[in-house]
Amino acid sequence: MSDTKDLLNAIVSGNNVEAERIFQDNMASRVGDKLEMQRREVSNSFVKSPVEYVDQEADVNETD
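Above: the chain sequence. Below: its structure as tokens.
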């Protein structure tokens, strides 16, 4: 929340360079947090997905 206040204060005071820095830092943090959440979701889906095991020896030993 203080980032938002700092951003607004920088904009109001006309300090565009500081406002841009605060904005970029805030966006980088948000994007990084979202990517981390999605990474965890994807990794959990890999762990929770059952792996199908196909017994290939049964196909080799069968006679027609």
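The CA atoms of residues 11 and 38 lie 32 Å apart.
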